[in-house]
Amino acid sequence: MRVTDQVTNQVAADTKIAVNANSLANSSTGPTGNALLDELNKSNANKASAVTKNKYEEIKKSADTLLESAEIFLEEGNGSLLSALDTEEGRTKLKEQITRLVNGYNNAGDKLKTSSNSLDAYYLQMLKEVAGDHASELAKLGITVSAQGKLQYDSSKTTADADTVRDTLGAQSEFMQKLAFISQHISDNAKAGIKNLGNTYNSYGAANASSVLAGSFDFRS
Questions:
Q1: Per-residue pLDDT tens for 160-185?
Q2: Which residues pair with 201 in a beta bridge?
Q3: How big is the CA angle at 198 (ends 196 and 200), to the nearest 5 degrees?
Q4: Exposed site from 90, 173, 175, 203, fewest CB < 10 Å?
């Protein structure tokens, strides 16, 4: 399932992120009148754009992977991950998915750290804070939050009852809803960055890197 409009709107209100916010601003430069310098500028701009695009693509991929993991936990009904926690097979699948979720979370954070985009820095802080805010709940499932904001998982400690698992990671879990919401925004911002690089050109015909306008946000409740 995709994050529902109801969940999106509620988490948007909690995090104070505008759902349709346009986060990218274009920058452009003009020719110097010096043919050699102009050619060097063009080459440098192309290289910078290629590096920036690659970073955006990696960030988007990591965010999409994290979102997919979160959405598995948000599924409800027969056949969903959290519907069979009373079986050995169900518990095994749970541990496998928690491992994927933790790895996806850490990878997304690592990719965000490589970006000079101010909004990505904000999203990285949001990831850390949403995990920190729910650290005591996550610990019941063997998930701990390091001082650097990374998640660590010990599957041998995933012994909590089914209700505790669902409350912590299920469809009604604030942690999981916010994690999915943030992941979606990270992906959308990276996609906008890639599109912006493809559509914005300076007078040399080279794509310009984009800068991000990030205001003062506070998503703490």
A1: 999 999 999 999 999 999 999 999 99
A2: 207
A3: 60
A4: 203
